[in-house]
Design brief:
Shape: globular
Number of domains: 1
Radius of gyration: 16 Å
Low-confidence stretches: 201-207
CATH class: Alpha Beta
Largest sheet: 8 strands, mixed
Order of helices and strands: EEHHHEEEHEHEEH
Distance between the termini: 14 Å
Structural class: alpha+beta
CATH topology: Aminopeptidase
Number of helices: 6
Bound molecules: coenzyme A
Strand content: 25-35%
Helix content: 25-40%
CATH superfamily: Gcn5-related N-acetyltransferase (GNAT)
Mean pLDDT: 88
Strand order of the largest sheet: 1-2-3-4-5-6-8-7
Length: 207
């Protein structure tokens, strides 16, 4: 399923006011973001990159970078969090999520990061909420992610946001956080989600 046209991507953007009072935008990654996104990942601390990708890496391999900018391909979506810094739109965070089906249950699995300089401003918590909204617009009823058991920076906002925790199948170093969501299309609390839902963007029938 590729529900979004590239020339249409900006319509699925959300403006979020975060705890610190700052306003950030969450929008789908565009092909022209490739360089900025790579610079963003390179600028993360070693620790943040390790936590994000669950292993050591300096940058996104070219093939993965290409995957990041192909929004909707193979039911995978990437968003960037941007804010105006010195008058320039600057990437301060990102998330990638994938729609999957287990029988009748549609779920979204995601990973995310926030620029180290902007962590602990409430942006991660706001992004988490926005991802739930985007998940609802795709018809998902479950949102989940895996993170290192030691990663308090992800575990705390997830716990505060109502996620439940369990062991990640097959990897004792990880913990899975998950949350069931049930939102009617008209009640989806973000502009991007209401737009997608009103256009009838629906997940394909499970095989
Ligand atoms: C996880 C992450 C996205 C959280 O983003 P954030 O914008 O800092 O999150 P918030 O500001 O909403 O933080 C919420 C709470 O998490 C906890 N927290 C955040 N960073 C923390 C840290 N480094 N150590 C311990 N607790 C931390 C705090 O309790 C914080 O609330 P407080 O500031 O009121 O004390 C960010 O730390 C990050 O990008 N980490 C690297 C990548 C990663 O770990 N991704 C998750 C796996 S996919």
């Amino acid at each position: 399923m590729t529900p979004f046209r590239f020339d249409d991507l900006r319509q699925h953007s959300d403006l979020l006011r975060v705890r610190s009072g700052a306003q950030v935008s969450v929008r789908f990654v565009e092909p022209s973001d490739a360089g900025g996104l790579q610079d963003y990942f390179r600028s993360l601390t070693v620790r943040s990159r390790y936590n994000r990708f669950l292993g050591a890496t300096n940058a996104l391999p070219p093939s993965l970078l290409q995957d990041f900018i192909r929004v909707g391909e193979a039911d995978r979506f990437s968003v960037v969090v941007t804010m105006a810094v010195n008058g320039h739109e600057t990437i301060v965070g990102e998330a990638r999520y994938a729609l999957d089906f287990d029988g009748d249950l549609a779920s979204i699995e995601f990973g995310m990061s926030i620029d180290d300089r902007w962590q602990r401003h409430g942006i991660g918590t706001a992004l988490l909420k926005n991802l739930e909204c985007r998940a609802a617009s795709l018809g998902a009823e479950l949102v989940f992610g895996d993170t290192l058991r030691t990663n308090d920076a992800m575990i705390t906002p997830a716990r505060r946001s109502g996620y439940a925790f369990s062991a990640t199948p097959g990897d004792w170093k990880l913990v899975r956080f998950r949350k069931h969501i049930q939102v009617e299309p008209q009640d989806i609390p973000c502009a991007s989600g209401r737009l997608a839902a009103s256009r009838g963007v629906q997940p394909p029938l499970a095989a």
